[in-house]
Amino acid sequence: MNYHIVVFDIGKTNKKIAIFSSDLKFISKESTQIRDALIDGILCDRIPELNAWVLDRLKSISKRYRIGVISTTTYGATIACIGNSGELVFPVISYMHEPGEEIRKKFYSTLGSAQDLYLKTATPLFGQLLSVGMQLFWLKTKRRAEFKKVIDILFLPQYEGYVLTGKKAVELTSIGCHTYLYDFHGKSWSDVAKKLGVTKRFPKKFSNPWDILGKINPDISNCTGLPEECRVSVGIHDSNASLLPYLLAKKGKFVLASTGTWGVFMFNHQTSSRLRRTGGSSFYLSPEDMRKDTLYYIDAFGRPARSASFAMGQEHDHYSDMIEKKFSIEPRKLKPDKNLIKKIINSKSCFVTPTLTKGSGQFPNSKPRIINKEEFFRDAKSAYTLLNLSLAIQSYFAIRQALGHEANQNIPIYVEGGFRNNTIYLNILSTLFPNQNVVATNIQEATSLGAAICGKCAAEGIQPEDIDPRLIKISEKPIKNLDIDQKLIQQYISEFEEHCSSL
Predict the structure, then answer these.
(1) Who contacts 128 (Cβ-Cβ below 8 Å, separation ≥6)?
(2) pTM
(3) Is-contact 272 249, C-beta < 8 A?
(4) Which among 86, 72, 389, 90 is positioned nearest to 209, based on CA atoms?
(5) What is the pLDDT of residues 391-428, one digit of tens each?
(6) Predicted local confidence at residue 338, as pLDDT
(7) What residues form DSSP beta bridges with 229?
(8) Same domain, yes or no: 373 and 415
(9) In this structure, are 22 and 143 located in the same domain?
(10) Which residues form a coiled coil (predicted)?
(11) What is the distance between the alpha carbons of residues 233 and 464, in angstroms, rounded to a whole number?
């Protein structure tokens, strides 16, 4: 079949359109930035601007490519509330909006304690509106009259598909993304969703991300020049889109470290993608897990994926900017120095502790600071090495959290995203896991590729596991560890932990 796949890869700020061939070869991409805006004092996603950009790009590319299918992937924790005539009852509210402590307390007093809900729905005690359940409770409480007008609720990937087709769907990768709406034990809607009375406002059945949502609306076809037979797939949450190529191309268990503003460490417990809606990471959580940003996603096949995270990119950029201003040097170009790393670990006198994003990550109560600033600012290489040592140690704890009961097993770690090019970080991370293979991978536009796989399945009426794995190109670079005494490393890690727990 000779056609092209259009992917809309919608990040919180960066919005991207990518073109793939029908055999999943990346062809081109374009991007723009659309930031949140205040509307009546509420931080909102600028959906009208996004939709205008989507239509403009479709009009442009329809002149150059034979578009057979459109697939969308977006960030999570974002919903559209739709009225009787298909209009938005509310602007699409940003998950970065802060509803206030009063509404948070009322949510838990009404619907259950944070711990009880966490153990059922795998939703950590996030701030802002990072859980859709909290957002719906806030809207229902504060905007009761308007909320009664809401007929349908769609997650953002499906809302963008609705704009193009007029068809509605719901799928598990979005529901299972720290929403409070999905019960991982019952594998269905949670008590929170039922008490909020929202289950009937979502489509009745759960779709697969690669199912056909519908053909594009004739009006969209007329204004963009796209063929009327162009299909649109249901859509997928972005972290799961990044994971999907690995699920299809790799055999056995692995950890995917998806690195960027946030480092998300996802444990694939499967030995085969063909298990389809069975298996998955054993679902188990403890109160201690809640304090360490441990959660479960639901992968594209409907299986639980144990995960942990911290704001690694934010911390990296914060301290890198300090180093650059101090020494007038771009620290990201510095290379690993084994002797320097050994010296730092052996001295146990200088540390960079998290966390800039209060209440998050592996050390949510830690005060962000530099311990022994004189040593940290000795020179640019020392400072940048210490920073990456901190990030690697936080990754070490996040990976062990994601692995859970299998933390001591020899399970490979694939690092993708921005930190795959950070050789200091990679060498230290590999040294912290001497018995595991740490591999830097490179998929061109990994998240977009995951969405393109969904698009290909929709266009051809196939399942993801029917795709030839050879079409999924993953370049790999094994990372050598630095052969540093593990006793010294563990001593440094122990002192790091102590500093994180001291005020």
Answers:
(1) 95, 96, 97, 98, 99
(2) 0.92
(3) no
(4) 72
(5) 999 999 999 999 999 999 999 999 998 899 999 999 99
(6) 97
(7) none
(8) no
(9) yes
(10) none
(11) 13
Among 154, 350, 297, residue whose Cα is nearest residue 235: 154
Of 417, 467, 422, nearest in space to 447 by CA: 417
Tell whether 433 and 491 lie within a shared domain: no
- Give the total number of structural domains in the chain: 3
DSSP 303: -
Whether the pLDDT of residue 469 is over 80: the answer is: yes
Paired with 127 in beta bridges are none
Dihedral, CA atoms, 54, 461, 449, 223, nearest 10 degrees? -10
Convert 338-365 to b/e letters by CB count within 10 Å (16 or more is b).
eeebbebbeeeebbbbbbebeebbbbbe
**Do 70 and 195 belong together in one domain?**
yes
Instruction: Evaluate if residue 131 carries a pLDDT over 60.
Output: yes
Do 273 and 326 share a domain, yes or no?
A: no
Assess whether 355 and 489 both reside in one domain.
yes
Backbone angles phi, psi at 46, to 5 degrees: -90, 75
Mention every residue, 6+ apart, whose C-beta is less than 8 A from residue 85: none
The CATH number of whichever domain residue 221 belongs to comes to: 3.30.420.40
C-alpha count within 13 angstroms, C-beta hemisphere, residue 386: 29
* CB neighbours of residue 115 within 10 Å: 14
Compute the chain's Rg from CA coordinates: 23
Indicate whether 220 and 265 sit together in one domain: no
CA-angle at 230, arms to 229 and 235, nearest 5°: 135
Q: At what angle do helices 114-121 and 101-111 cross, to 10 degrees?
A: 70
> Phi first, then psi: what are they for 427, rounded to 5°?
-65, -40
Q: Where among 182, 212, 234 does a domain terminate?
A: 234
Is the peptide bond between 355 and the residue preceding it cis, with omega within 30 degrees of 0?
A: yes
Q: What 3-state class would DSSP assign to 455?
A: helix
